[in-house]
Amino acid sequence: MKVGILTISDKGSRGERADSSGPAIREILSRVKAEVVCYQVVPDEPDIIKKKLIEWSDQELSLIVTTGGTGFSPRDNTPEATRAVIEKEAPGISEAIRYYGLQKTPKAMLSRGVSGIRKQTLIINLPGSEKAVRESMEAIIDCLPHAVDVLSGESRECADKPGKS
User: 108 FRET partner, CA 20 to 30 A, in 15, 68, 91, 98?
Assistant: First the structure.
């Protein structure tokens, strides 16, 4: 599984804040033997986000995980940029992230992150804080390998086969 991690942060892109969310995503993805081949910190500018998502999905990455820019701030543009480039939404992923987060804090309902597919790349928006990223990844990590396999055509079935565990 080839992965790109895109951190969206105005301060991070200017070097005013260290990115702890991107490294947390990388750490958790190592559990499923994902290879992070692209990593970048960009400002919360819709055109820059869209350009990077298109560029990386055109490189045939299996998965792009974004962190940041999913809240209510006027500068939070990640969901809109993501919607502009995906071909199909995958709402269950973002719903699972918010549901899992709601077990920890009611503020999880304020995340506007989306998930979707562009070509054969799954794109998932996560919140910007390291704590929220870790919780969000916990909600979805076990399903990511299967999602990527189905998307790439390596697996066609979502249900467990009889007699298999």
Answer: 15
